[in-house]
Specification:
Elements: H1 3-52, E1 53-55, E2 60-62, H2 66-75, E3 79-85, E4 96-99, H3 114-117, H4 127-137, E5 141-147, E6 150-159, E7 165-172, H5 174-224, H6 239-299, H7 306-330, E8 338-340, H8 342-359, E9 362-368, E10 375-377, H9 379-395, E11 401-409, E12 414-421, H10 428-433, H11 448-459, E13 463-469, E14 473-481
Parallel strand pairs: 9-11
Antiparallel strand pairs: 1-2, 3-4, 3-7, 5-6, 6-7, 8-10, 11-12, 12-14, 13-14
Helix pairs in contact: 1-5, 5-6, 6-7, 6-8, 7-8, 8-9, 9-11
Length: 488
């Protein structure tokens, strides 16, 4: 999953969670506020009723005309029942019952009218506990109850007088529920719209964050693939802009480092060419002397037979081959990987290095395993590596000796080229220092030859292993993969 989509989903999930919590909180807050409002309204109704309650001959009655009761119900359509309970007899019967089905022809409903005018449809045994709590605490209590699958709200209001009592008002909860349902619908509509806006905003926000990262990643891929010096377009002043500037600085530094490395390789290459030139000149001068002699004979009218002409042609080809290899080594070339026959590459190297080997009384033997596949490499760089390694082997044998080159396949699709000499060898401390700049056992050595050779082999995704025993010889193993993976 792309980072942009992940950020968008995370941002949307956070917003949705916050909105859901807010909607839930608003719903329950509204529910509590509605309950409190209804409770206060019913307290007012109870107090108004209490104003008209009269006590006479141990009987409570409403000293108000019937139209007062009718108006009270018309102004509070949700009231289903009003009941009065006094402390002594509240567990048995109410002292006053008014419901929506009262016979309004009676001007003064009294306790004696209970059986005639009321039915106590909404009261139950649990109400006795609420009435006792109200009488004890003198605080209004409201509860939600269900009576015959009908949801109602009961409000118990304490009335303080010479003889305290409780008025119970039963409300139809449908009106409250309708208000809550409307509020919930409104909240979910707002929630849905907010989610849509959040998703859109989060997408653009994620895009704003991710696009610069994608651009930086593309430039880093270019740098990984060797395109040093590429720059990120920095148009922001935040942390991402700072990251882009750091990538640009890194790219430029790598470009300078690469240029320095290439200059170092060229310098070392020219040094090798210079060292080989003396032997090459000697190798060329001998056949040239023979050719000049033959040409003098021809100029004086001497006829040449086929054997002499074949010798002249062979010497010219020998000169051409040596100069071609020297020119290839010295000529600056762009690095390019292609399929190369490692056996042929080593033979070309021996064409140049055999001159120095012969001069130092060193014999080079090469053994190549059959059917070695071609490998992906830069031919010129590998030639420089093997010339350096063979030169070191030759120079390690002051009194001559043998160099054995063995090429064979390894199990993991790699080729190993082993170069074994019987020279002076090195101790463990000297082997560890190999590859450090300016470490060399030669009088005029710089130590850069092996360091650059190791670098070029690493550029080919390969490795160099050194095994050496003091006064016995050194074995250098160059391990190269068959293919070069240029992708991240």
């Amino acid at each position: 999953m792309q980072l942009k989509i992940k950020l968008s989903l995370i941002f949307s999930a956070i917003v949705v969670s916050i909105l859901l919590l807010s909607t839930t909180f608003n719903y329950f807050s509204s529910k509590e506020v509605l309950h409190e409002d209804r409770e206060q309204d019913m307290e007012s109704v109870a107090q108004r009723i209490a104003q008209f309650l009269q006590y006479d001959d141990q009987t409570f009655y409403i000293d108000a005309p019937a139209h007062f009761v009718e108006k009270m119900f018309s102004n509070n359509e949700n009231i289903l029942e009003i009941s009065g309970f006094e402390p002594q007899s509240h567990q048995e019967n109410p002292i006053l019952i008014i419901d929506t089905e009262l016979d309004h022809h009676c001007d003064h409903p009294t306790i004696n009218d209970f059986n005639q005018y009321a039915r106590l449809d909404y009261h139950e045994e649990l109400d006795i506990e609420y009435i006792e709590q109200v009488l004890e605490s003198n605080q209004t209590i409201s509860v939600i109850s269900t009576h015959q699958k009908e949801k109602v709200m009961k409000v118990f209001v304490p009335i303080t007088s010479e003889s305290p009592y409780v008025i119970s008002i039963v409300l139809d909860y449908t009106s409250i529920q309708n208000v809550l349902d409307q509020q919930l619908l409104y909240n979910f509509t707002i929630l849905f719209l907010a989610i849509c806006v959040a998703v859109i905003v989060s997408f653009f926000f994620a895009r704003y964050i991710v696009e610069p990262l994608q651009q930086i990643l593309l430039k880093l891929n270019d740098i990984h693939n060797g395109k040093y010096g590429v720059q990120v377009d920095v148009i922001r002043k935040d942390e991402l802009g700072l990251l882009g500037e750091r990538v640009n600085a890194l790219s430029l530094n790598l470009k300078k480092y690469k240029q320095s490395e290439e200059m170092l390789i060229k310098s070392e290459k020219l040094a090798v060419v210079g060292q080989l030139s003396a032997g090459v000149v000697h190798e060329i001068r001998n056949p040239l002397t023979s050719l000049i002699g033959f040409l003098n004979l021809i100029r004086h009218g001497k006829e040449m037979n086929k054997e002499v002409l074949d010798v002249m042609t062979s010497e010219l080809h020998r000169i051409e081959l040596i100069l071609s290899e020297l020119l290839i080594l010295a000529k600056p070339q762009e690095i390019s990987y292609k399929k190369i026959n490692i056996h042929k590459l080593l033979k070309d190297v021996l064409t140049l290095i055999d001159i120095q080997a012969t001069q130092n009384n060193v014999k080079i033997h090469m053994q190549v395993e059959e059917k070695i596949p071609h490998i992906d490499c830069d031919e010129n760089q590998l030639k420089q590596v093997f010339i350096n390694l063979l030169k070191n082997a030759i120079e390690a044998m002051s009194f001559g000796g043998n160099i054995n080159i063995v090429v064979k396949m390894m199990e993991d699709e790699k080729v190993i080229i082993s170069i074994q000499d019987d020279g002076c060898g090195m101790d463990e401390e000297e082997v560890c220092k190999l590859g450090e700049p300016f470490f060399s056992r030669k009088e005029k050595g710089t130590g850069l030859g092996f360091m650059l050779s190791e670098k070029m082999i690493h550029n080919h995704k390969g490795s160099i292993q050194i095994k050496s025993v003091k006064n016995e010889g050194t074995q250098v193993n160059v391990i190269l993969p068959l293919t070069q993976d240029q992708h991240i």
